[in-house]
UniProtKB/TrEMBL annotation:
Family to which this protein belongs: Belongs to the SRR1 family.
Source organism (scientific name): Illadopsis cleaveri
Record's keyword terms, sorted: Signal
Cellular component annotations (GO), alphabetically ordered: cytoplasm; nucleus
KW tRNA processing (keyword) present: no
Record has Protease as a keyword: no
SRR1-like domain segment(s): 1-157
Endpoints of the signal sequence: 1-36
Domain of life of the organism encoding this protein: Eukaryota
Protein name: SRR1L protein
Pfam short name (any one): SRR1
UniProt lineage: Eukaryota, Metazoa, Chordata, Craniata, Vertebrata
Length: 192
């Protein structure tokens, strides 16, 4: 499991609920806490210590979402992360074999598609745009108490047969995303 963008759970109730859900999810899926790596550049020293005390691992560097699954089934927990983080993750795993090994719990890709002009989606978030026909998505059920915590959150997975139905040209483009013209960039880059 890899968790990006959890936020300042020491200060923010929504981030605490998201952390609690992550811990429950790990328990339910029988993923040992030591097999869950987290990164958020906003973590304070106390929050980092609390995560370590829970047995979780902290990634030492800002990967900018560019984490390859390397053949292992991997859950990415990315509630309310910026679109560039999802796009970078897809780019890092841009093959049917790799994408079929990952599950993402995060912002609805269908919601992203609905809210962005198609030319912006295709220009700035190419990998999200190209994988929409190869992804299955189920929204988390809403609960009145947690509307701000998990709104627009879905579980995404990439069935190998659906990915293999995409045109071969989809897989030929593998340029790293740069975001030079992106007006709504929501990512903290390395060194920032």
């Amino acid at each position: 499991c890899v968790c990006y963008g959890l936020g300042r759970f020491g200060r923010c109730p929504a981030a605490r609920y998201q952390l609690a859900f992550l811990l429950l999810l790990l328990d339910e899926l029988r993923v040992p806490p030591a097999r869950c790596a987290l990164f958020d550049p906003a973590f304070s020293a106390r929050e980092a210590a609390a995560l370590r005390a829970l047995g979780l691992c902290l990634l030492p560097d800002n990967e900018e979402g560019k984490h390859g699954v390397e053949g292992e089934a991997t859950l990415f927990y990315m509630v309310h992360c910026g679109k560039a983080l999802y796009n970078n993750l897809l780019w890092s795993n841009w093959s049917p074999a790799a994408l079929s090994k990952l599950v993402i719990i995060g912002n609805s890709f269908r919601g992203i598609e609905e809210r962005l002009l198609s030319r912006i989606l295709e220009r700035d978030y190419f990998y999200i745009a190209k994988v929409l026909k190869g992804v299955e998505e189920v929204a988390l059920p809403s609960h009145p108490r947690y509307l701000d915590t998990f709104n627009d959150t879905s579980v995404h997975w990439f069935p190998l047969d659906k990915l293999q139905e995409l045109s071969p040209e989809v897989w030929d483009f593998v340029e790293e995303p740069m975001y030079q013209d992106c007006e709504d960039l929501e990512i903290i880059r390395k060194g920032e």
